[in-house]
Design a protein that fits this description.
A three-stranded mixed β-sheet has the order 1-2-3. Strands 4-5 form a two-stranded antiparallel sheet. It folds into two domains: 113 residues, CBS-domain (Roll); 70 residues. The two termini are 39 Å apart. Strand 1, helix 2 and strand 2 form a beta-alpha-beta unit. The chain contains six helices and five strands; from the N terminus they run αβαββααββαα. By secondary structure, it is of the alpha+beta class. Helix 5 packs antiparallel against helix 6. The protein is rod-shaped and about 110 Å long.
Length: 192
Amino acid sequence: MLVREHCTKDVVCIRSDAPIIQAVRKMRREGVGSVVVLDADGKAVGIVTDRDLALRVVAVCEDQDREAPVSQVMSSPLVHADPDETLEQAVRRMCTRGLRRLPVCEAGRPLGMLALDDVLAVIATCLFDIAAEAGAQRQRALWRGHAEAAREELEELYEDVRDRLRYTTWYSRARLLDEIDTLKDKFKRSRR
Protein backbone atom coordinates (compact mmCIF):
# COMPACT_ATOMS: atom_id res chain seq x y z
CA MET A 1 0.00 0.00 0.00
CA LEU A 2 1.42 3.33 -1.04
CA VAL A 3 0.93 6.65 0.72
CA ARG A 4 -0.60 8.23 -2.41
CA GLU A 5 -3.46 5.69 -2.28
CA HIS A 6 -4.55 6.67 1.23
CA CYS A 7 -3.71 10.34 1.79
CA THR A 8 -6.20 13.17 1.56
CA LYS A 9 -5.57 14.96 -1.72
CA ASP A 10 -6.75 18.41 -0.63
CA VAL A 11 -3.97 20.19 1.23
CA VAL A 12 -4.63 23.53 2.88
CA CYS A 13 -1.56 25.73 2.46
CA ILE A 14 -0.47 29.18 3.56
CA ARG A 15 2.54 31.32 2.74
CA SER A 16 5.22 31.65 5.39
CA ASP A 17 4.85 35.45 5.53
CA ALA A 18 1.07 35.30 6.19
CA PRO A 19 -0.05 36.42 9.67
CA ILE A 20 -0.83 33.78 12.27
CA ILE A 21 -4.43 34.95 12.55
CA GLN A 22 -4.90 34.21 8.84
CA ALA A 23 -3.73 30.63 9.44
CA VAL A 24 -6.24 30.31 12.29
CA ARG A 25 -9.09 31.63 10.14
CA LYS A 26 -8.12 29.39 7.23
CA MET A 27 -8.04 26.30 9.44
CA ARG A 28 -11.45 27.15 10.88
CA ARG A 29 -12.97 27.90 7.46
CA GLU A 30 -11.57 24.72 5.87
CA GLY A 31 -12.30 22.55 8.91
CA VAL A 32 -8.74 21.22 9.18
CA GLY A 33 -6.28 20.79 12.01
CA SER A 34 -3.21 21.93 10.12
CA VAL A 35 -1.90 24.05 7.25
CA VAL A 36 1.23 23.42 5.24
CA VAL A 37 3.51 26.46 5.12
CA LEU A 38 4.96 27.36 1.71
CA ASP A 39 7.92 29.56 0.84
CA ALA A 40 7.83 32.17 -1.91
CA ASP A 41 8.54 29.45 -4.52
CA GLY A 42 5.57 27.34 -3.40
CA LYS A 43 7.67 24.66 -1.73
CA ALA A 44 6.63 23.21 1.62
CA VAL A 45 8.90 24.41 4.43
CA GLY A 46 6.83 23.74 7.55
CA ILE A 47 3.48 22.97 9.07
CA VAL A 48 1.27 24.76 11.58
CA THR A 49 -1.10 22.56 13.56
CA ASP A 50 -3.89 23.41 15.94
CA ARG A 51 -1.57 22.20 18.71
CA ASP A 52 1.16 24.64 17.58
CA LEU A 53 -1.36 27.46 17.75
CA ALA A 54 -2.56 26.45 21.19
CA LEU A 55 0.89 26.02 22.72
CA ARG A 56 2.95 28.59 20.86
CA VAL A 57 0.48 31.39 20.25
CA VAL A 58 -2.51 31.38 22.56
CA ALA A 59 -0.60 30.30 25.65
CA VAL A 60 2.34 32.74 25.34
CA CYS A 61 1.57 35.51 22.85
CA GLU A 62 -0.03 38.87 23.24
CA ASP A 63 -2.84 39.94 20.91
CA GLN A 64 -0.47 41.90 18.68
CA ASP A 65 1.68 38.76 18.21
CA ARG A 66 -1.16 37.14 16.28
CA GLU A 67 -0.19 39.39 13.38
CA ALA A 68 3.33 37.91 13.40
CA PRO A 69 4.20 35.73 10.41
CA VAL A 70 3.32 32.04 10.45
CA SER A 71 7.01 31.21 10.01
CA GLN A 72 7.52 32.12 13.69
CA VAL A 73 5.25 29.36 14.99
CA MET A 74 5.51 26.65 12.32
CA SER A 75 7.17 23.30 12.92
CA SER A 76 10.24 23.18 10.75
CA PRO A 77 12.09 21.52 9.11
CA LEU A 78 9.08 19.81 7.62
CA VAL A 79 8.79 16.07 8.20
CA HIS A 80 6.90 14.68 5.23
CA ALA A 81 6.11 11.52 3.28
CA ASP A 82 6.90 10.71 -0.32
CA PRO A 83 3.79 9.68 -2.29
CA ASP A 84 5.46 6.48 -3.50
CA GLU A 85 6.71 5.24 -0.15
CA THR A 86 4.80 2.51 1.63
CA LEU A 87 2.16 3.31 4.17
CA GLU A 88 4.15 1.30 6.70
CA GLN A 89 7.21 3.55 6.27
CA ALA A 90 5.10 6.69 6.70
CA VAL A 91 3.35 5.30 9.79
CA ARG A 92 6.69 4.38 11.35
CA ARG A 93 7.86 7.97 10.80
CA MET A 94 4.65 9.30 12.37
CA CYS A 95 5.09 7.04 15.40
CA THR A 96 8.80 7.83 15.80
CA ARG A 97 8.21 11.58 15.60
CA GLY A 98 4.92 11.63 17.51
CA LEU A 99 2.99 13.10 14.56
CA ARG A 100 -0.74 12.89 13.87
CA ARG A 101 -0.46 14.45 10.39
CA LEU A 102 2.17 14.00 7.73
CA PRO A 103 2.23 16.19 4.61
CA VAL A 104 2.80 14.23 1.39
CA CYS A 105 5.26 16.10 -0.85
CA GLU A 106 6.95 15.46 -4.15
CA ALA A 107 9.92 17.63 -5.11
CA GLY A 108 9.01 19.94 -2.23
CA ARG A 109 5.43 20.50 -3.48
CA PRO A 110 2.53 19.40 -1.25
CA LEU A 111 0.31 16.73 -2.86
CA GLY A 112 -1.71 15.52 0.09
CA MET A 113 -1.94 14.98 3.81
CA LEU A 114 -1.72 11.65 5.60
CA ALA A 115 -3.55 11.83 8.91
CA LEU A 116 -3.75 9.29 11.68
CA ASP A 117 -7.47 8.99 10.87
CA ASP A 118 -6.55 7.87 7.32
CA VAL A 119 -4.27 5.19 8.72
CA LEU A 120 -6.95 4.00 11.16
CA ALA A 121 -9.44 3.73 8.28
CA VAL A 122 -7.00 1.52 6.37
CA ILE A 123 -6.39 -0.65 9.45
CA ALA A 124 -10.14 -0.97 10.08
CA THR A 125 -10.72 -2.03 6.46
CA CYS A 126 -7.95 -4.61 6.71
CA LEU A 127 -9.38 -5.98 9.95
CA PHE A 128 -12.87 -6.24 8.41
CA ASP A 129 -11.38 -8.07 5.40
CA ILE A 130 -9.48 -10.46 7.66
CA ALA A 131 -12.60 -11.12 9.76
CA ALA A 132 -14.68 -11.73 6.62
CA GLU A 133 -12.12 -14.17 5.21
CA ALA A 134 -11.85 -15.99 8.55
CA GLY A 135 -15.65 -16.27 8.65
CA ALA A 136 -15.74 -17.57 5.08
CA GLN A 137 -13.05 -20.16 5.84
CA ARG A 138 -14.95 -21.26 8.93
CA GLN A 139 -18.15 -21.56 6.90
CA ARG A 140 -16.38 -23.63 4.22
CA ALA A 141 -14.97 -25.91 6.91
CA LEU A 142 -18.43 -26.36 8.40
CA TRP A 143 -19.91 -27.17 5.00
CA ARG A 144 -17.16 -29.69 4.32
CA GLY A 145 -17.90 -31.28 7.68
CA HIS A 146 -21.65 -31.29 6.96
CA ALA A 147 -21.10 -32.76 3.48
CA GLU A 148 -18.94 -35.53 4.91
CA ALA A 149 -21.54 -36.32 7.58
CA ALA A 150 -24.30 -36.28 4.95
CA ARG A 151 -22.30 -38.65 2.73
CA GLU A 152 -21.82 -41.09 5.61
CA GLU A 153 -25.50 -40.86 6.50
CA LEU A 154 -26.54 -41.53 2.89
CA GLU A 155 -24.26 -44.55 2.66
CA GLU A 156 -25.83 -45.97 5.82
CA LEU A 157 -29.25 -45.25 4.39
CA TYR A 158 -28.39 -47.05 1.13
CA GLU A 159 -27.28 -50.11 3.03
CA ASP A 160 -30.38 -50.05 5.23
CA VAL A 161 -32.69 -49.84 2.20
CA ARG A 162 -30.76 -52.64 0.46
CA ASP A 163 -31.18 -54.85 3.52
CA ARG A 164 -34.95 -54.20 3.62
CA LEU A 165 -35.35 -54.88 -0.09
CA ARG A 166 -33.92 -58.36 0.29
CA TYR A 167 -37.31 -59.37 1.66
CA THR A 168 -39.38 -58.02 -1.27
CA THR A 169 -40.31 -59.80 -4.48
CA TRP A 170 -37.51 -60.73 -6.84
CA TYR A 171 -38.42 -58.36 -9.71
CA SER A 172 -39.13 -55.28 -7.51
CA ARG A 173 -36.04 -55.92 -5.47
CA ALA A 174 -33.71 -56.17 -8.48
CA ARG A 175 -35.10 -53.04 -10.05
CA LEU A 176 -34.91 -50.98 -6.82
CA LEU A 177 -31.40 -52.22 -6.06
CA ASP A 178 -30.26 -51.13 -9.52
CA GLU A 179 -31.76 -47.65 -8.96
CA ILE A 180 -30.05 -47.35 -5.59
CA ASP A 181 -26.69 -48.39 -7.08
CA THR A 182 -27.15 -45.81 -9.85
CA LEU A 183 -27.88 -43.09 -7.29
CA LYS A 184 -24.89 -44.13 -5.23
CA ASP A 185 -22.59 -43.94 -8.28
CA LYS A 186 -23.93 -40.50 -9.19
CA PHE A 187 -23.30 -39.28 -5.66
CA LYS A 188 -19.72 -40.57 -5.69
CA ARG A 189 -19.02 -38.95 -9.08
CA SER A 190 -20.45 -35.61 -7.89
CA ARG A 191 -17.94 -35.52 -5.01
CA ARG A 192 -14.93 -35.70 -7.36
